[in-house]
Amino acid sequence: YIGVESLIPKENYHNPFDILTSAKKWKKTSMRKGYIDFKDQEGYNWWTAVKTYTKAAGSVSDYIIFSLLQAGRSIDIASLTWDKVDFARKEIRYVDTKNDETYVFPLTKHALEILHRRRKFSNGTEFIFEYPNSKDKHVPPACKDHFKAIATISGKHITHHDLRRTWATQARALKIDGRTIDYCLKHKIGDVNEHYYQGQKQEIHDALQLVEDTILSHVKSKEPKEMEMAA
Asked: In angstroms, rounded to a whole number, what is the distance separating the alpha carbons of residues 192 and 204?
């Protein structure tokens, strides 16, 4: 409770922020810093936990990994339908995004493998990441309970948004062009994004593939020796 008498007199308070600032009750929100460091053992543990997570016939696992590799927002990926995938061109379209723009993304090797697997296990619904127990018939975007379950197994708790932060952190470490990173994160870049894709298609593919390859390389480097020998 903030009493009127404690506020600076003769001020016009039209915004709650102004009141909190005047009363010195405003606290700056701390920046979220959750991400997965694949150079560390935590990355391998998390990846392995996700890859072996079998809920919804593996749909949740594939949804999480695909989201990471595509640097995607949960609201854009959870409800993806098969008509957005062009297997021949190895592309996927995101429509009605947060930015009200349509984005075309190339499909990297592992991301494409995920889509082929989901197609194989598809029960005929329109959604790529099916979730039979949901009224929407696709995975819940936030997947909070699933992330908690994976954290119990791996010791690493993250949110879906942390997947985007992980991708961006890795991309910057690889010195990928900032404009390409912005496109991959679906940030506004001040022009018609589909035109940007057509002009920089190979650059965008190479950026996504480089991040994917780097993550997979880090994971493989942490595999136990007996698994490497078996492979």
From this structure: 15
Contact predicate 127/121, CB 8 Å: no
Q: Give ∠ CA 185-100-165 in degrees, rounded to 5.
A: 20
- pLDDT tens-digit map of 55-109: 999 999 999 999 999 999 999 999 999 999 999 999 999 998 888 888 999 999 9
Q: Using an 8 Å Cβ cutoff, are 41 and 49 in contact? A: no
Residues across the chain: 231
- Residue 80, CA distances (Å) to 4, 54, 136 in order: 51, 20, 12
The answer, as to whether pTM is greater than 0.85, is no
> For 80-193, where are the E strands, in sequence order?
85-86, 91-94, 103-106
Rounded to the nearest 10 degrees, what angle do helices 41-51 and 59-69 cross at?
Answer: 140
Q: How crowded is residue 168: how many other Cβ atoms within 10 Å of its Cβ?
A: 19
Q: Cα(130)–Cα(137) distance, rounded to whole angstroms?
A: 6
Torsion of CA 96, 35, 65, 92, to 10 degrees: 30
* Residue 105 neighbours by CB under 8 Å, 6+ apart: 70, 91, 92, 93, 94, 184, 197, 204, 208
Q: How far is 97 from 110, CA to CA, in rounded Å?
A: 23
